Structures are given as C-alpha cells and as structure tokens.
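Why should sequence recovery work at all? Because a backbone constrains its sequence more than one might expect. Tight turns favour small or flexible residues, buried strands favour hydrophobic ones, and helices have their own preferences. The token representation captures these environments compactly. In the example below, the structure is given first.
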C-alpha cells in the first residue's frame, strides 16, 4: 500500500519560512516524479513545484519562483519543499503527490491527473 505523509506545516508570519516534508512508502520511489500542490479556501488546487525522477529537473509556479525550493532524497524516500519569504497568499493546504512513472528520468508532470497517489495534506497559514 502506497502512503504519503506530509509534515512541517504551521502558522508563520509573512516574510518567514517553513520547510515541508513528505515521506513516501513505495518500493519504486526513485522512478517517480514528485510534486507539491496547494489549495486555498474557495480556490482550486494548484501546482506549486515538481521535481523529476532524477534530480536535476524542476518546475515552479511563477508565484513561488525564487522563494520556494523543492528537493528529494531517493535514499530516504522523501521530498521537501523549502518555503521562504512567505506571503499571505501562500496560505492553504499543501499536498505532496507522486506520479509520472515511466515517463523519463527528467519528466516533470504538470497536471493533477498525472499523479497516482496523494498525501492527506498539511496546513500552512501565513499571517500578514
């Protein structure tokens, strides 16, 4: 059974930082791309960042470029999202997801339907 468990969310003031982590229980972790999504109240879920199967290829939403950094540790089956210079508009539930298997080592899936498994989410609240 595949499980994704996020941690690291919380309440932070604008301008502050948080580090989210996602632990994945799957035998073939290193062959999947990993993504972080978020959903704000009353809004649709949006893609925040993606990292390919082989570290080296990443994608960031324009709204987080230069502030967020995605990374992965294939030996530990974890993916992290370092979030700096947080803004009130970064508030939402953050989800990690795994997908894009067998699409190439540098592929970064950009659509929700390309992800096979999802975590339960962790709340990030940025106070202004």
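From this structural description, the recovered sequence reads:
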């Amino acid at each position: 059974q595949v499980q994704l468990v996020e941690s690291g969310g919380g309440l932070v003031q604008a301008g502050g930082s948080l580090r989210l982590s996602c632990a994945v229980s799957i035998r073939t972790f290193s062959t999947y791309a990993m993504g972080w999504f978020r959903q704000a109240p009353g809004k649709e879920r949006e893609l925040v960042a993606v990292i390919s199967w082989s570290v080296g290829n990443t994608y960031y939403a324009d709204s987080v470029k230069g502030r967020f950094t995605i990374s992965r540790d294939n030996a530990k089956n974890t993916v992290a999202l370092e979030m700096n210079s947080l803004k009130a508009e970064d508030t939402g539930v953050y989800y990690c997801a795994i997908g894009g298997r067998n699409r190439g080592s540098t592929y970064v899936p950009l659509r929700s339907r390309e992800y096979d498994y999802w975590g339960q989410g962790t709340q990030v609240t940025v106070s202004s």
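A few observations help interpret the result. The mean pLDDT is 95.
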